[in-house]
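#lab-general

N.A. 3:47 PM
ok so I finally got the sequence cleaned up, no stray characters, all 400 residues accounted for. can someone with queue access submit it? mine expired

B.Y. 3:52 PM
send it over

N.A. 3:53 PM
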Amino acid sequence: MALMTVEEALARLLADGALMATESVPLATALHRVLAEDVAARRDQPPFRASAMDGYAVRSENLKEVPMRLQVIGEAPAGLSFPDPVGKWEAVRIFTGAPVPEGADTILIQENTERDGAFVTALETVGPNKHIREIGSDFKKGDILLTKGTRMGPAAVALAASMNQPELTCYRRPKVALLATGDELVHPGETPTPDQIIASNSYGVSGLAAEAGADVISLGIAPDDKDAIAAKVREAQSLGVDILVTSGGVSVGDHDHVQDVLKEAGMELNFWRIAMKPGKPLMAGSLGDMQVIGLPGNPVSAMTAALLFLVPLIKKRMGLEGSHNLEPARLGAALEENGPRQAYLRATLGIDEDGRTIATPMTAQDSAMLSGLARAECLIVHAPHAAAIEAGTPCKIIRL
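B.Y. 4:20 PM
back already:
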């Protein structure tokens, strides 16, 4: 039976991924959340004519000839208006952000003055409207400045605050539960037997899921026992998990029970086994409202499959673009001809003398070797049945 392509499998997975429900999020916790509706400004910014500099609010007509001596009639600090109009041959000491008093039409910056008690001498000629931020010059009340589907970065959060928005309507973060399976696994810090290894997949996949925006739950490690795995699946259901991610146990070995347990629990299988390397024994399905992704057990396979499938699914369910951004590069070393599966090769990045991105594949590409993945800066996408490729040939990469 022909294996499903990466593109077809991803399309089928994303088609099953419904948008998350929406919720009101306090602005203080809105960083990296995704907006579920447009956001309009609730006030003009600035809401008054504001000084952009420290100096003196004056009438420009008084500064046609300098030096010019003016009487200082008061002070306007930020947050407090000066109550009286500025008359002829008068000035008001003003600070950045303060409202420009009535009668003044320009700001004389303090560096170009000399102060003498109740008087200030202007040392430069200043035309009208200098160093003044007009009402609504940044934005006006009702302007839509943040649109549905925006992922809130620090600048967007600051903008929402300036718009006087204390809460935002966002998509709920998908709740992702991670379950590692295998008699051979122990947690970091525990003492393994001579035949055991340290579990790493859940830690790496958890990082990918959290960076994508998910709320991550760990279900720990289940041994290669159907009852134990079934109990963990029921726990995920009881927690209202949106996406259950298992690691290991999805292949065809005598101790690979994950798929059987999930089917017995009612899972509808979407696909199993993909024409990709590493990550061939990838599984996806649905158990009621909970989507299920079964990752391979080999660490690099699990991380690669999670990057290519879990991360896009999380993003899609949060209202973001789900597909990966393929970037152009050139090979820093030759590639051998490829087999029938699309390969994702760990590589480092550099820049040549012409400013082009160079992706150099690592020598070792074994799917159990995490040390190379930790050093890698990208994955080179090597198409199925591709002929041997020389160094310097254009290629496509996914940045890590």
